[in-house]
Amino acid sequence: MATEKTDVVIIGVGAAGGVLAAELGKAGMKVIGLERGPRLTTQDFNPHDELRYFTRQDLRPNIKRQPVTWRPNANARANPIPVQNYGNQAGGGTVHYGAVSWRFHEDDFRARSQTIERYGASAIPEDSSLVDWPLSYADLEPYYDRIEYELGVSGKAGNLQGRKIDGGNVFEAPRRREFPLPPLVVDQAGAVFDAAAKKLSYHPFSTPRAILSKAYKGRPGCTYCGFCQAFGCHVGAKSSILVTVLPQADATGNFKLITGAMCYRVNSDNSGRVTGVAYWGPDGSDNTIEAELVILTPFIYDNTRLLLLSKTDKFPNGLANSSGQVGKHLTAHMMPNVYVAFDDRHINNYMGPSAQKHTIDDFNADNFNHADVGFIRGSQISVGTGNLEGGPISLTTTAPPSGVPRWGAAYRDFLAKYYARHAAMVAQTENLPYADQTIDLDPNVRDAWGLPAPRLTYDWRRPNELARVEFMMKKMEEIGRAMGATHVWRAPLGPGAPGAHHEGGTRMGTDPKTSVVNRYGQSWDIPNLFVIGSSTFPSMSGFNPTLTIQALAYMSADAIVNRYKKNPGPLL
Amino acid sequence: MSTHDEARRAFLIGAAVGTVAGAGLVPDALAQDHERHAAANAPASAHPHSTGAGHGAFLNDDDAAIVAAFTERLMPGAPGKPGAREAGVLNYIDLALAGAYEDLQDFYRRGLASLDAYCRKTHNAPFPRLDAARQDKVITALEEGKATGFTWPTAQAFFNTVRTHTMEGMFADPIYGGNKDFAGWRLVSFPGAQPLFSPEDMKSKDAFTRLPIIGLQAQAPVRRG
Known about the structure:
The complex is a heterodimer of chains A (about 575) and B (about 220).
Chain A: E1 3-11, H1 15-26, E2 31-35, H2 50-55, E3 69-71, E4 79-80, H3 111-119, H4 137-151, E5 159-160, E6 163-164, H5 188-199, E7 205-206, H6 245-251, E8 255-259, E9 262-268, E10 274-280, E11 286-296, H7 300-309, E12 331-333, E13 337-341, E14 358-360, E15 379-384, H8 392-396, H9 409-418, E16 422-429, E17 438-446, E18 452-457, H10 463-482, E19 487-490, E20 500-503, E21 529-531, H11 546-564
Parallel strand pairs in A: 1-2, 1-11, 2-8, 3-18, 11-21
Antiparallel strand pairs in A: 3-4, 5-6, 7-14, 9-10, 10-11, 12-20, 13-16, 13-19, 14-15, 15-16, 17-18
Chain B: H1 3-21, H2 27-45, H3 61-74, H4 84-87, H5 89-98, H6 105-123, H7 132-143, H8 155-171, H9 183-188, H10 199-203
Helix pairs in contact in B: 1-2, 5-8, 7-8
């Protein structure tokens, strides 16, 4: 058993933890980062292999060693979910993500107020716990700018300081300056999508991605190999934490990364402060780190799990949980797909970054009138590959058009003809938060360390969300027909389990009675405990969360370095 | 494609293959070496079982015959259209059950036993002896959950798993024992793990036909002239 002392310990060195390690290290704080998985390098991702990384999910948690269970409601028994979408190594999900990098809309930060102002309070489903964020887009804009330039996000501005620009996203919130890099080269899926969307008077554009369209900060531009979502980048053009801020953290000389470390408890004392963490090493050793500041930045399940596992006599409901809100308001994107296939042309959809290549934002957020559609909040609609990954195994996991069987000569001929002639659209829906969508500790299932598995209680199939999915499916079918596709078909919807991009569990807010942390991710109850990541999002937006997680991490780092460090205590 | 792209592509292809081979970064020489290697040995190099019966790591002879026949109906071959047998799907499944999917050994044992009992009961013969139409009837009964006598795995679960593994054996890299000579990738026009596509490639509305197809250890021969 080893005991170490440090200023700061960070649990999980991914999108948020990597940023904090670099920034606190630069400020002279001694930082130890604990990471459950390994630290990989760019050469580990060469060459590419669909079976290993897409099918067998090599960069994601092993579902047998690290199960997460799901049940649709509190009366059902929970079973392990077969696919986990988060990362399991230094860099976290940014190693295998599609690198889609959005700023949220202004009204994403005030969805409740926006809805009431435009449609009245009755438009919000009674059982939804939709609330505004405790901060505005303007508060976060400087940090969005910071992270875009750290990573090298490729895109075209659609709103420069209020001036709308065709070809960019005209619905985006105002940005102070242009993206650091021009958009990535359009592939044929993007080209047919753009043409069809314009025909319908929508506003398509190249999705902003943290993938280098040109050499940037010593890294080479994208090679358009197509092995992007589910894979590590073989040239380091995808701006994962591994190749961006983690080297900055190393360079400070103040950062130590411990890999193979399974944190199982946050330690606290009777004064009401946390004192550090306990973790098991790869050899099974039981170790302790004493720290002045504990920052939790794992994937959202483990924030809730660690807080609940760390209960004491003083904190009988778990740490940071005097509000009783820990584990509540879980949300996730649903990703309904519509496929298209062409007789008269190829798409060669395996080329180019594979996820959400081009987008329309016309039906996202409150960008359109919801008065007569039967639901509030919207969805990003984009084109790319089914499952966000473009290899042939991926296509075989989805349903063919109606009339085509799933096996036999006709299925073989379908694959032979259409694999290189198909594309997929996806609607990434902003599901509302509900208090009874929760994470807690599974009483029946344990992980390889003997800890109770995180258990999700969740069912997205609520009237507001079902109406939104149907609306978006129709929009995607309309776009598919406008493309002139020979076949346009829906993929079947999955069960009620959470989809991609989980949010919630340690909600931020303005009131310690109804939220777990403040806008900086600082626990209301325990000022030297921070939780930073999408688990603090009060609502989710139809956009991918990573850039917002990273912007929040910069905002928290600033607050810790400039204010907390000089005067440790509540920031608000 | 520009000269710059061509050079970068050669480097990346060399690097892609070189990493697995454990060779240093001498891209041009390496790429040529691999081309020669591929031209001389392409069919054999990535297929440890390609000259045998396609099994031996896990499945016994009777079970292997059922898996071979079953997967060939799921993905049947035809002239110019390689199917499961030609792609070595049996070999893929056999190796996977001895390795990455060893936790499915009992799933297969029991599923195959239930399938065999069902075929003997309803058609008085084991699956491999049935004609194609009867085989398809049996598979449909599994797919629809109508085949009797299955407990665990259920008929549908067994069908779904064998279907999934058949697709993996068709389309996973040949290093895993299937997709022999890139049969699956040729069938659907997938060029493999290309490390680079040029802006011209991205503009094309036509089939991408530039060789070689690139796998983890093997490349398809580059046809010259």
